[in-house]
Every structure is written in C-alpha cells, then in structure tokens.
C-alpha cells in the first residue's frame, strides 16, 4: 500500500483527482460519495479577555451581529453564517467583521490579539 497525504482548504472533486479516501468537515460535497461520520466537530465561540473588556460579552446569539467577528472561511461554506445550538434549539446568525481568512492559525492569533470573536473547533 502507498499513502500520499494531501492537505487542502479548497473543495476537491474526489473522483476526478483519483482520491480514494478523504476526511472532510461538514456535509459530503457530492451525493454520489459514500460518507460516514467519524467524529463530531463541536465548535466554540472564543474571544480574548481584552476584546470582551472593550466590546462587552454577547448575551444572545443576535448580539453577535453587533460585534467584530473573525470569519474562518472553509471550502465553499457560506462565510459568516454561524450556526449556534443550545440544547435542542439551533439558530443561524449572519456575523460580520473586518477580518476573514481560510487559515485557522491566523484566525486564532487574531482572536488572541483582541480583534474579535471567533468560532473555532473544540
């Protein structure tokens, strides 16, 4: 057996690129693929103490619309649509902010530096 590891943050057409196995976040991009959930991808809202001291802490999901949110762009997912769950309730909030990136480490550093609120995988 030969293994080639290919890491990418862009959508990949698995059959066209001769990829046999892929680990993806979110829904399978193609209904012709056989997909099996292997783990939950729990996400948390994160912000630095300095940001929260300056801007206040959001108390409700809608409060996020008045904050600087750092948007992490992944594949073709709608950027800035954060799906928040509490118990059995789920709400989608369209957030905005001056900063967005497709690099998780950059987004994390921006949040740590106090530039806004980030939704990040646990």
UniProtKB/TrEMBL annotation:
It comes from the Bacteria. Residues 2-118 form the LysR substrate-binding domain. InterPro entries: LysR-type_TF_proteobact-type, LysR_subst-bd. It holds the Pfam family LysR_substrate. Belongs to the LysR transcriptional regulatory family. PANTHER family: HTH-TYPE TRANSCRIPTIONAL ACTIVATOR TTDR-RELATED, HTH-TYPE TRANSCRIPTIONAL REGULATOR. This is Transcriptional regulator, LysR family. It comes from Aquitalea magnusonii.
């Amino acid at each position: 057996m030969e293994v080639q590891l290919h890491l990418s943050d862009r959508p990949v057409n698995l059959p066209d690129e001769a990829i046999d196995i892929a680990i993806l976040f979110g829904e399978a991009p193609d209904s012709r693929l056989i997909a099996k959930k292997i783990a939950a991808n729990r996400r948390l809202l994160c912000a630095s103490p300095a940001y929260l001291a300056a801007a206040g802490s959001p108390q409700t999901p809608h409060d996020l619309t008045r904050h600087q949110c750092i948007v992490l762009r992944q594949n073709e997912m709608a950027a800035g649509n954060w799906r928040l769950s509490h118990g059995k309730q789920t709400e989608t909030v369209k957030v905005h902010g001056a900063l967005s990136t497709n690099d998780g480490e950059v987004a994390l550093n921006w949040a740590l530096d106090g530039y806004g609120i980030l939704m990040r995988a646990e």
